[in-house]
Write a structure and sequence with these properties.
- Helix content is 46%, strand content 8%.
- The protein is of the alpha/beta class.
- It has one domain: Glycoside hydrolase, family 3, N-terminal domain (TIM Barrel), CATH 3.20.20.300.
- The strands form three sheets. The chain has a six-stranded parallel β-sheet. A three-stranded parallel β-sheet has the order 8-9-10. Strands 4-5 form a two-stranded antiparallel sheet.
């Protein structure tokens, strides 16, 4: 089977020799498209069994959990911006963060981090200057209390913190929609492996990509060409081949944004958004790509802040909905690995909830990692208090920490 997989990848590349767009790396050899799609599907089927990464607790993981304090456990469940450890940085708009351009670990951050460990850190464009700065910054981050994994949004196209920085000489991709339009999943594999290779080189662990949303709403202003297609049958093999490419480069991918951000018109960065689809409708569209990612063995799924009232019967954002995360994602779809929120400092959350309500509510709903709380210290303290008063059980915290430590073990990391 390995020889077949190797041949598929080799043939997929060789068929495109001489006809690859040098800027995007996309193959456009139409006569071979149908053959390549069949081969890619065989590749996907063969890959599923060897990527079953369902967390299986081991004695060393259990020993780690038993030895950790409550604060150490809760710290693992927060993946934060570097600025979250610097309370002197006060911001209201994302553009404010650009003015600070925090690009090194400061004494203030170290001081806060002593009592507020973190499980992960995500870098944005304003945190990255050039290769020299990044090579200094990343080891500083990884030495923080909690031994955080290093994350980034490097989808390719318009969301690419490295590729869209002129100080880095890496291959750029036009968009995932352009890749999807070729109808050739081998292009998605090439994109994922290319991006994963340079992320690994710079020291990243997790790429919050690929976008698995099916872009069915022409008025969608936040997803658009970040999605591979408006057809789930086209998007699904693109998603799994992109994940495969990242994995081969040593980077963990993340399928996003569950239960699907492609059929909304509002931007959750700034406010409320909803999908009016029923679950039955989602099963024939949005869930096709997510189920493909789960079958492949994806380690991370990111939530969307959209509400789905015809699924949940409420206006709660999916990030804070037990119906979406427990009943649907875990129980019905059988997903066993990490659930991470979309950034909790986005308007769809902050316009409706406090930092404390958002962090506690998302964990109660089933989230394992809280990404980018607007006020990390308040959110952290709120979760500690919720456990101490019995609102959240410590065993519930242990469930998430177990998944996080399993992921870190996969990445050859061990928390403090």
């Amino acid at each position: 089977m390995k020889e077949l997989n190797d041949r598929i990848l080799k043939d997929g590349r060789s068929l495109g020799n001489g006809i690859i767009n040098n800027k995007s790396g996309i193959m456009n050899h139409v006569p071979f498209r149908n053959l390549l799609i069949i081969l890619a599907c065989l590749f996907f089927t063969a890959s599923c069994s060897k990527h079953d990464h369902s967390p299986k607790p081991t004695d060393d993981i259990e020993a780690q959990i038993a030895s950790m304090t409550l604060r150490e456990k809760i710290g693992q469940m927060f993946f934060v911006r570097p600025e979250s450890l610097a309370p002197s940085i006060v911001w209201t708009k994302y553009t404010d963060l650009v003015d600070y351009s925090l690009q090194e670990v400061t004494d203030e951050m170290k001081s806060i981090n002593k009592n507020y460990p973190v499980g992960g850190v995500i870098l944005f464009a304003h945190n990255i200057k050039d290769e020299a700065q990044l090579s200094n910054f990343i080891p500083q981050i990884k030495a923080l209390n909690g031994r955080p994994v290093l994350c980034v949004d490097e989808e390719g196209g318009r969301v690419a913190r490295i590729a869209n920085n002129g100080n880095f000489n890496v291959e750029k991709f036009e968009s995932m929609a352009a890749i999807g339009a070729t109808g050739n999943p081998a292009n998605a594999h090439y994109c994922g492996k290319t991006i994963g290779t340079y992320l690994k080189k710079y020291g990243f662990d997790i790429d919050f990509a690929p976008v698995a949303d099916v872009n069915t709403n022409p008025d969608n202003i936040v997803i658009g060409n970040r999605a591979f297609s408006d057809d789930p049958a086209v998007a699904a093999p693109m998603v799994t081949n992109y994940l495969q490419g990242l994995s081969e480069a040593g980077i963990v991918g993340c399928v996003k944004h569950f239960p699907g951000h492609g059929d909304v018109s509002a931007d959750t960065h700034y406010g409320y958004a909803q999908s009016m689809k029923t679950w039955s409708e989602m099963l024939t569209c949005e869930m096709v790509t997510f189920k493909a990612g789960i079958s492949w063995g994806c380690r991370l799924i990111m939530t969307a802040h959209i509400s789905a009232p015809n699924v949940t019967g409420s206006e709660f954002p999916s990030t804070m909905s037990g119906v979406i995360l427990q009943d649907k994602l875990r129980n019905e779809l059988g997903y066993k690995n990490l659930i991470v929120t979309d950034a909790m400092d986005m308007g769809a959350i902050m316009n409706q909830y406090t930092n404390e309500e958002a962090a506690v509510g998302s964990i109660k709903a089933g989230v394992d990692a809280v990404l980018c709380p607007k006020d990390f210290i308040k959110a952290f303290d709120a979760v500690v208090s919720a456990v101490e008063r019995g609102e959240i059980s410590e065993e519930r915290i242990n469930q998430s920490v177990r998944r996080i430590l399993e992921l870190k073990k996969l990445l050859y990391l061990q928390p403090n």
